[in-house]
């Protein structure tokens, strides 16, 4: 761009020559340049103004289009929402090992009231009280006419109740949809399942949260919306569980026991097929925990897992098996059983005198405390402790229940030589029936460690080795002989080769020492002994068999018959074939006519 | 003949004011403004009785006030359109100074009417919102400065106008009133763009606005809550926005019928910020589209008429006023349809509100004064002037 100077010298000089004002030339040039700039600016502004006009037109069109889209969609009714995140109601089902439902959800309604919307609070209160007998009309009326804007009346109502409330025709009574946790089998496996209740509650939804057992332990899994369609499969077998609970309940009554527990475990996988604890409860209507008295008498208390007892002679097989494993004895080695045996100021006695010497097998069969203690002395505290640890008896079980981590075995503070002896026959160390089931499974399945689980396992790897297979076989042989010719003779179930060990332990007094006439009777059994499949532990709390002249409390008279009846019932249910000697052909009479 | 013989009285140059006004003013835009005002009264009849009832007043109390203020606004508008641009500029600058002083004293003397932001002076019979009056004055001052900077040996108008903008925005943000701040910033941006801003600068300015927004989001709860509400795709149906959006849906294409709407009963701001929802609910999409078309006509026509304008000040001021007017309408309607985050902004000339109406009258009057047809040095203009003389 060539710019003419505002005061071109030639023209200025010329003007001066002619006597004209040279400033006029400057003003003229200034005006011309101004006009030039103005025209240029206007040209540029023209384009930009067109752009602006276009932009505005587009913006108005967009707003108009959006209005049209909105106007074309359906309105939604404004509803009050619960503040915060949405409440997920979905909760996965729980099924047994064969897919039968143990816990599921049911659509139901919660009933609430908004008193400001009420037309006739007096009628509403009286009608409600007649539908729900547990509600008081006066109390309701007080709530309805007071300053409350909102109140829950019932957390869960049945369809019939809902219709009845609906028929009152009161606009201030409203229903909120709910998912309710339902346990269709009632009391079955109550302690395993635990129970559920409502967590965060809104008008349109309420959270279902597990409060105990599997429901609590797997709460996150069950509530995860991603798992909504995949139920949690337990190792429990519903039919077996039903049979076990039924027989155990009958046995508990017959033996006048105040409580009972049973654990049925697969020896190879550690899966708990059945777990029962009596007295029990209905998880659909979970009772409140006891506030007074002994917590272990609470129906909510799971004796099989939480009940940590001194289980008595059932421990003897561990001492015998370990001594054999260590090469200290073999089943036929003679052990001194002359009693009473004194150790410092402590005396160990047997139930009756078994003579001066017994073979290791007979120590187990006759259940000699003295013989077991002598074997334990040979093993020593250190090795015993290590062995029981490998059987899982020194720590809480890893079973998938909230209650399990709290149930730690009670160990002697100082594992002295005396403790070694008492522990060898099951005193001085308290553990739960589930601990015992896992330890028996580990010892008897060929000698590999199993860990108890309530979740159906696919294929389980063999655990680490606890004892040699021949030790395991010898232990099973001894246990079988306990049933055929020893303390557990009532335990014989034809065709199933039951082997097992009885244990009768005096109950410790809370203030120290032991009761004379209160025992925990336990029968730890394995069947079939020649090809072990299952371990069954039955424990009765304070049993008394009163058919004889004086009450009998030993496990052989109490726990063993109950266990035998359980095995008789459940073995066929689990598909075990009884091994019955084939009838000789001579017994068959061919008939023809 | 007499004149030729005796000599004529010196003839007044130019034609009388009113005929010239009628000939030169943008009759389309004026019609649009009048129609908008009419629609505003109509919607006020629908939207304000619930509020009046709540406040224990005569049902049409707010409509009557709207008519009084509207009458005043229309008078202001017509008078302003008749003023010559130079006088508009002078009055505009004076108005800006007055409004700015009022704005600066707001924190001391203003009230917030319980709405969380100190924006008003309570005058007893009415309330006054200085920021509404500030806007037209601000446009005039900035346009003047920007135009002056383009003169040979002119003042550094661009920097000066930017400084004024920043000061005003800071004062508005202190209230806090981010909607008006954004509007002021936008108005200045448009004028600067038209005054020949380099594109790189415009882009970096857009970036700065974004940064400012982020800063405001992080530091002002008031602001953050509204943005969050906007970004949340699940609109809470019980919020103002939820009701507003729902009202538009409820109305559909032809509306639920006059007086049949429900949204006015639920929204406290139904007669001001959310009046478009009332319109959509009772009269349907039809009326909403008419309203949008009216605004679009005013804005786009003003732009097209200003293309012819030679005078830089007039062009800048006119564009700034039209852009602010249009954007305010766009923001108000954009909020109702959830295109924009919730902002307390009135729908110019339709929403209820004395300050808003009269300030709107002033602003539109100025705009129409600037868009009047005037000689632009074209051959037709020159011939026309010759012919008149």
Q: Radius of gyration of chain A in whole Å, from Cα?
A: 42 Å
User: How many runs of DSSP E, i.e. beta strands of chain A?
Assistant: 18
Write the CATH architecture name of the largest domain in chain A: 3-Layer(aba) Sandwich
Main-sheet strand order of chain B equals 1-2
Main sheet of chain B?
A: 2 strands, antiparallel
Strand content of chain A: 15-25%
Largest sheet of chain A: 5 strands, mixed
**What portion of residues of chain B belong to β-strands?**
under 5%
The CATH class designation of the largest domain in chain A is: Alpha Beta
Given the C-alpha coordinates, what overall shape of chain B results?
globular
Question: What is the SS-derived class of chain B?
Answer: mainly alpha
Approximate helicity band of chain B: over 70%
- CATH fold group of the largest domain in chain A: Beta-lactamase
Overview of this structure, please?
The complex is a heterodimer of chains A (593) and B (389). With 593 residues, chain A is α+β, with helices and mostly antiparallel strands. Chain A folds into two domains: 94-233, Penicillin-binding protein 2a (Domain 2) (Alpha-Beta Complex); 239-285 and 298-573, DD-peptidase/beta-lactamase superfamily (Beta-lactamase), CATH 3.40.710.10. Chain A has helices spanning 9-18, 23-72, 121-131, 137-145, 159-168, 190-193, 213-217, 219-223, 238-254, 303-306, 316-325, 360-366, 369-379, 381-390, 417-424, 433-444, 469-485, 559-573, and strands at 94-95, 101-113, 151-157, 173-182, 195-201, 206-212, 232-233, 259-266, 272-278, 309-310, 334-336, 341-343, 346-348, 357-359, 430-431, 499-508, 514-527, 534-541. In chain A, the strands form six sheets. In chain A, strands 1, 2, 3, 4 and 7 form a five-stranded mixed β-sheet that branches. A five-stranded antiparallel β-sheet of chain A has the order 9-8-18-17-16, with helices on both faces. A two-stranded antiparallel ribbon of chain A has the order 5-6. In chain A, a hairpin with a 5-residue loop joins strand 1 and strand 2 (101-113). Chain A is elongated. In chain A, 43% of the residues are buried. With 389 residues, chain B is mainly alpha-helical. Chain B has one domain (20-373). A two-stranded antiparallel sheet of chain B has the order 1-2. In chain B, a hairpin with a 4-residue loop joins strand 1 and strand 2. Chain B is globular, with a radius of gyration of 23 Å. Chain B starts with a helix and ends with a helix. The mean pLDDT of chain B is 84. The interface between A and B is large, with 38 and 49 residues.
